[in-house]
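Most newcomers find our protein records easier to grasp once they have seen one. To make this concrete, we reproduce a full record directly below:

===
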Amino acid sequence: MAYAEKLVKSWRACWKGPDGKLLKLSGFDTKKSALDHANDQEADIRRRGSRANSRSHMSLEEWALDWYRALDLEPSTMERYLSWLQNHVIPRWGDWTLRDLQDADNDVARWVKDLEDAGYARNSINGIRWMLYTLCADAAARGHMSRNPAAVRRGRGRVAPKRKQRQQERAARGAIDPLTAFLIAERTAVMSGRGDEFTLTTAMFYTGVRWGEAIGLERSLLSAEALQIRWQLARHGSALQRRDPKDGSVRDVDLPPFLADLLARQARQVTHPAAVGEWCPCGEGEPKRYRHPPGIHVFAGVRGNPHWRRTGFGDQCFYPAARGVLYPTQQARRPVYVDAPPEGREIGIMDRSTRTYARPDLAVACWAPLAPGMVLHSLRHSHKTLMEELGVPSPLMDERMGHSDGSVQARYSHPTEGMRRRLVEGLQERWEATLASRARMEPHSPVGVVDGLLAPYRDCCSRSTPDESGCRRAPVRGIVA
């Protein structure tokens, strides 16, 4: 029933929406005007319901397909929605009519519990349930349903699983310090057998760019002062599309001198696989507006692939480096083994077994995890945390991360050249301190680019010059290009 509420200087109209929730609108001068507006809203809801009675008998599958065809979203979002619909929502609810579904609250709750018992991740369950909620909410807004059975009332349900999920997410996405990031980047290069992956991982940590923006970085958009983030390579099915950055976050990312040098070196020496035709084969079958010429990017894939894929890079390089585990989500999961070194040499911190087939019986050690549970996106979280440690103002942090802040404070705050200079200087200082710490651990590296970076620090770590930190000089081992 519609009614009016008295406020301090005005009146508020209150009425029930199609889903039974109480809706409110304030700002009316008199009680009568507020009550008239509330009554009009309820009358309009009843009219829409009577007009749509015939559509309430349609099945959810019919409604879902009609609803999906009207969407205009990013291809990756459309693909995700279609996967949720085809694999979960329609198989379970497709033959239900909208009229029957509107009172199926208990059935929906049992369905969600079945998904939990089946072992689906919490984020996957939330996405699947959100898909059903959105379908029903849009149907209710058009008068096809009187209420939404997938709506979750606040304060309902167990608190412990939700709190545990948040704790797990924080632990998985926890920030790492620059030295840990350096060691992870060095390990990725050891795993791939080349220095490109060291530069890629280091660039992601010190710029905070997303994965698609990192592999989509083009050589023509790289300068000595900044990265120009104009494109990303986003997965669409089995192909990669050259698209605008997420949410249109086009921006320039200021570079400290060390990173500008690393990226310039990478752009000069990167080797792309030969391609036939004017388009890169990564976008085969995609519209021309999503394709790009071959060989224009700063980073390339391995074994003849034009680009790394997120899963391949994670399983083959990043997860072994961060977690000390190869293929952590597959049956082939195993540690990164370390074989016995040649006689007369100690085990180096970057040594590992290079055999094609794992031989645990011949291993003398394995890589210890540097950041257990870490995911690739954690590098972006770590960069934001690093900027907060350096005291970077929020306007510059938001610009650098590609975030949008709609608050009043953000409207009147802008990045300045002084802010940028202090940020670049702070990142450079952290890098130099990290190099010194890494050299004290071992002044050589099997990764060529890292071995060159450590060269200026070797004198202070040699046996001829005693060092109170106890740094030892290791013999030069095989250098990876």
